[in-house]
Amino acid sequence: MSKFRNAVLAFVCLAAAGLASAQTTKFPGVGREATAKEVAKWDIDVRSDFKGLPAGSGSVAKGQDVWEAKCAHCHGVFGESNEVFSPIVGGTTAEDIKTGRVANLQRADYPGRTTLMKVPTVSTLWDYVNRAMPWTNPKTLTTEEVYAVTAFMLNLGNIVPDNFVLSDKNIAEVQARMPNRNGMTTAHAMWPGNEFGGVKKPDTNNKICMKDCTPEPKVASFLPDFARNAHGNLQEQNRIVGPQRGADTTRPEPKAGTPAAAAAAAAPVAAAKPEKNESKAVIALLNKHSCTACHGVDKKIVGPGFHEIAKKQAGKVAYLTEKIKVGGVGVYGPIPMPAQSLPDTDAKLIAEWISKGASK
């Protein structure tokens, strides 16, 4: 009887040990293991030695087309940006391309820092565009489009010629021309290498302290209106590197209930509402031509929402058609809308839909 009991106890212990072992590698009832194909979709990072870079290519000319359709509304037609983002291009010289160090980064009086001034590796540009752009619809660019857009940005910075085709075969040659390729350093002790002789001193020397703590501040007031223009009109203080437009601080921000806000929101002459099928067809056109990257139907994204435009431009089909085609700036703020290359018939259909109220 004693032997039988010991055998049963041993079996139970082994079973429990097996169950515990299984539970350390699994989460019963919670999801499942990702397949190799699913993991591959997330494993898209590109290292500075170009490991992870997919095969492909894209020309500067193709990149310009993609840029104007999906990138220019945020970054400017020539990478000079606008009120939304800092410039991508500018501040680098032919001498920087030779030395691999951007001289203007050493100047305390230089007013701006562009992407091409700072980024040391072309793989960083490729990787970020691939995973994060366009910002309203990331990971939708094809591999060819990512190569092409990267080539176009490099061309704007005079790093590659107009007829250049960037590919996984020649990207290492382009790396040798990056203006700030020699500007990256590990001499900050955040992840020290051999240049420190094996001494790994952290860049901070903090001590754990849970006494005499500074009390958490409480916001008791906001910046008053009279202080808005304390440093002059920010919009007029344009920087050398691209038009980094600031707000026009000579004018107060429109507030709800003020005459300015009421005038902006005033409904114009009532227009006929589009049919439901018409609205669906036009919204499909808006998606096709990337209009929704900047404009929501009922909300602002980069530019005003279509409802806001409809309130101000009801019935103005010809005016809206022209604005869609040629672009403009100043009607809804300082952010410019580049000219659009969509067919005239599509532009007119969109204009008619907006003029009738832009209903869904």
Topology:
Elements: H1 2-25, H2 36-42, E1 57-59, H3 60-70, H4 72-75, H5 94-99, H6 115-118, H7 122-132, H8 143-156, E2 165-167, H9 171-175, H10 259-265, H11 276-288, H12 306-312, H13 317-326, H14 344-355
Antiparallel strand pairs: 1-2
Helix pairs in contact: 3-8, 7-8, 11-14, 13-14
Question: How is this structure best described in words?
Answer:
This protein has 360 residues and is mostly helical. The protein has 14 helices and 2 strands. The protein has a two-stranded antiparallel sheet with strand order 1-2. It is globular, with a radius of gyration of 28 Å. The termini are far apart.
If you consult CATH, what is the topology of the domain at 57-175?
Answer: Cytochrome Bc1 Complex, Chain D, domain 2
Q: Strands of the biggest beta sheet: in what spatial order?
A: 1-2
CA radius of gyration: 28 Å
CATH architecture of the domain at 57-175: Orthogonal Bundle
Q: What is the makeup of the main sheet?
A: 2 strands, antiparallel
Number of helices: 14
Question: How would you summarize this macromolecular structure in one to three sentences?
Answer:
38% of the residues lie in helices and 2% in strands.
